[in-house]
Every structure is written in structure tokens, then in C-alpha cells.
Amino acid sequence: MTISGLNGFACRPHFSLRLPLFHCIRKPRFGAVAAIETLDEPDRIIDEKRHSLGERVGKKDHKVPEWKKLNSKELGISTSMIAKPTKKVLNGLKQRGYEVYLVGGCVRDLILKRIPKDFDIITSAELKEVVRAFSRCEIVGKRFPICHVHIGTTIVEVSSFSTTGRKFNGNVSYDVQSPIDCDEKDYIRWRNCLQRDFTINGLLFDPYAKIVYDYIGGLEDIKKAKVKTVVPASASFQDDCARILRAVRIAARLGFRFSRETAHFLKNFACSILRLDKGRLLMEMNYMLAYGSAEASLRLLWKFGLLEVLLPIQAAYFVHHGFRRRDKGTNMLLSLLSNLDKLLAPDRPCHSSLWLGILAFHKALSDRPRDPLVVAIFCLAVHNGGDMSEALNIARRITKPHDIRFHELSEPGDKDSESLNDEVKDFAVSVKRVLSMMTDEYCVSQAMAKYPQAPHSDLVFIPLPLYLKVCRMFDCVRHGAEKGFVPKQGSEINYEMLALGSLQEVRHTFARIVFDTVYPLNLT
């Protein structure tokens, strides 16, 4: 892979961090509890407890947040909000005498009254002890091992304090004053929170004691709707450049802003994401585009110089049409993604073939604007599996006006059925050609060639199976009605099948999104 402008790229932390050595503290041993609580017992009221951490070395005017232990009921958290598979894992470990906590983004989402994408657990048990506690459980990951506990069709991730204690990268160090007057358990929890990516993800929730632990100011940043790294952003992003994409994903999904320092290094370290493997990049892009925050994600990727690295073809579209980094306006690509978002949510995602199909469809339409009637016939033919005659008959009955704001839609013309049929098939060929471009390193590298002032890459992270799946989604338009394909009836989406990539569901949802964009309901 060739990368423009990365020669000599290096990020040096501007500070030093020396944590108290973990082996200087006795390994915690949590005794078995006499009476095991269940997650259905009533909340208990506790008092808030605060500990001062002093000041971060090198920033004497910046006080480290006070430690807070808050009653979960006062924060609006109920154990009824926890998914049943997660409760089974929590109860299974608690009944064996281990400390268990919910940790990370799920605690943040519970406080915000949002549906967590998933629930992560951290425990005092060793990973081998977690494996012994459940019949279907395995340890995954080499660098940062965790347990995958299978409860029915759900996988619950469980990490161990003993494992996360080894996560600190030896190449990056931090300087944080040791905690004052804390017990052993507080120290272990605090140290784990320091390893989190963002303060709003650094909360721990004990669902049995009904306590939320906040050692790094996460609650305050949730109130301020701010995404801020736990340690200085330059070191945080150098330590794990995937945090750059996670920051965008979180801010897009929650509508949060970045702290000034985080925003600065997001932009400065944009090209460092090319160090990630392609599978990880696809996963992060899918998290952004398939869970209900695609439009906001694309805007942030563009604003911070990441779009031209990840999706140069779409970045070139923005540049060509003068869409500024902080532009509040819209265009057809953003409108398509906005209508995609209206149908999705963190617990109702789509398969990656849907958003990739939308990107390819839009690029083909942007390269050569088409009659709205041609677009309508194309979408109907995709939906019904290639029955062009039916698609044409339905499209001719459309009386709603199309959205004239989009340059991708040409002026409607008076065409006969044969001409329309030929143009629809030609458009299908164009979509297939764009898909090939998006998986060709040379074509991707040339997308931003007209704009040498912008960083760009030849990055292709779309695997062959995904490319073929999207091709199949559109091939029916060129090849005619598919034998045995039954188009979806009704408007209700089967989200389980959509997430699995069911051809019927993906085609139906694609057609619905395009129609909502070309023929919006609010036009008269």
C-alpha cells in the first residue's frame, strides 16, 4: 500500500507518565459473599464518597477529577435495563464470589437512557476461572485477551482486572499522582479506568451494590456532552490509533462534541489510522454507518480529514461540489445516509452490504445524473428481483414531485419503455463499475488526485465476499427476473434478517431509502 505524505510520520508524547508499579500492590483477593444478591432486588441508597487525586504533573492548573461513588438509582439506572444474557453472566460470576461490574460505553448509555449496543463486564476472576464458570466460553485475543461467554445466540464479553492491568504500552508513559487514602479495590478500579479510551467510557457500575464509580470525570463530561481522552490525546492516539475512529463514532452517535485537545489531535493524527488492518477498518466503518449515525459520522470524518483517507471517492464528491469542512448544508449523499439512519438504531443495525450499496449507487448517479423515473425503475427492479416490466408499470404511476435540489437527478424526459429499459440497465452497469472502482487500489488512489493539497490513500478495506454480495444485490437489474426470488411484501423491516444480510431485506430497505430521498414525503 502506498500512502501519500506519511514519510517520516511520527508522534511523540509531550509528557511522561509513571504509574505506581502494579506489583507493589498486593493482588486483590475478594472473598466469597455470604448471601448472593440477584439483579432483581430493590435499589439500596448509598452516600456519595469523594476522594481528591491532587493534580496532574506538568499541569498544575488542571486538577484531576474527584473520585465519585454515586447511587445508580439517582442516575436513573435500573437493573431492568440490563439485557438478560448479561444478567446471567453477572449472576454466574457473583454467585462464585467474584466482584463483577459493567464497564465502558454501556454504563454511559444507561445514564443517557440509550440502548447500549452491547454490555461489557469486568471481573476480579481470572479468565481461566471465567471459562470454568460457563459451559460455552472461550478466551479470545492475544494482546488483550478477554472471554466470550455464549448465552443462547448472544456473546457477552468479559475481561479480567488481572489482564487489563497489563495493557499499558511500554512505549508511552504517563505521569499521574498516586491516589490518596484509597483502599485496594478503589486502586484497582481507578487503575483500570486510566486505561480507558475516553472519560465518558471510564465508568464502572456495580449492579449489586447499586454504585456507579467515576474516577476520571466521566459523569461531568457526559453532562457537558464532551468526548475527551482519559490521558493527553497525543499519547492516547499514538498508543491506539483505533481510538480516533471510536471517537468519531461515539461523537456521531451521541451528538457530542470533542474537547479542544482531542479535536486537535484527531485531525493531526488522521493518517495514522492506516496502521490498522483492513478488517479492523471495515469493522469501525460498519459501526459508524450501520447503527443509525451514518450521516453524522460522514460529516465528522470529512470535518477532521479522515474521509479522504478512508473513502477518497466520497471525499472527492464533497470537494468537487464545494462542500466545506464545517458545512451545515446537505447533499444527496448525506440525505441518503440520513434516510438510512431513520430506519436503524444501535439495537437494529443493517448489514454492511446495504451502506456499501448506497455509496456505489450514489457515486454512479453523481458521475452521470439520471432521470428520476430511471432511478425509480432501477430501485423497483432491485426490490422485485429484476422484473423490469413490473418496475416500469409501477414507476409510470408515480405522481409525486422529485427533489430538485440534487444535481444527481436530471430533468425528467418523455421516453418510451424501450429507452427507459435500456437506460436502467446502463445505470446498473455503472453501479457495478463503481463497485469495481471502490475495490481497486489504483482507482481509489486517483480519486483525490485532482486535489493534491488534501491527504489521500489507496486504501481498500472492502473484502471480496462483501463486494460480491453487493454485486448480487444489483445484478438482477441487468440479467432479468431471478428465478425463485420472492420480493418482500409490506413495509415492516425484519431487522434480524437485515443484520444478517438477507437479500430480500437488503433490497427492500435499499429501495425504500432511495425512494424516500428522491421523492421525499414533505414535498408537495
From TrEMBL:
Q: Which GO terms describe its biological process?
A: tRNA 3'-terminal CCA addition
Which molecular function GO terms apply here?
Answer: nucleotide binding; nucleotidyltransferase activity; RNA binding
Query: Where does the Poly A polymerase head domain start and stop, copy by copy?
Result: 100-227
Whether Ion transport counts among this entry's keywords is no
**Cross-referenced Pfam families, in alphabetical order?**
PolyA_pol, PolyA_pol_RNAbd
User: CDD domains, from UniProt?
Assistant: NT_ClassII-CCAase
Q: Which keywords accompany this UniProt record? A: Nucleotide-binding, RNA-binding, Transferase
* Highest taxon of source: Eukaryota
Domain tRNA nucleotidyltransferase/poly(A) polymerase RNA and SrmB- binding positions: 255-316
InterPro entries hit by this protein: NT_sf, PolA_pol_head_dom, PolyA_RNA-bd, tRNA_ntf/polyA_polymerase_I
Q: Which family does it belong to?
A: Belongs to the tRNA nucleotidyltransferase/poly(A) polymerase family.
Protein name, UniProt field:
Poly A polymerase head domain-containing protein
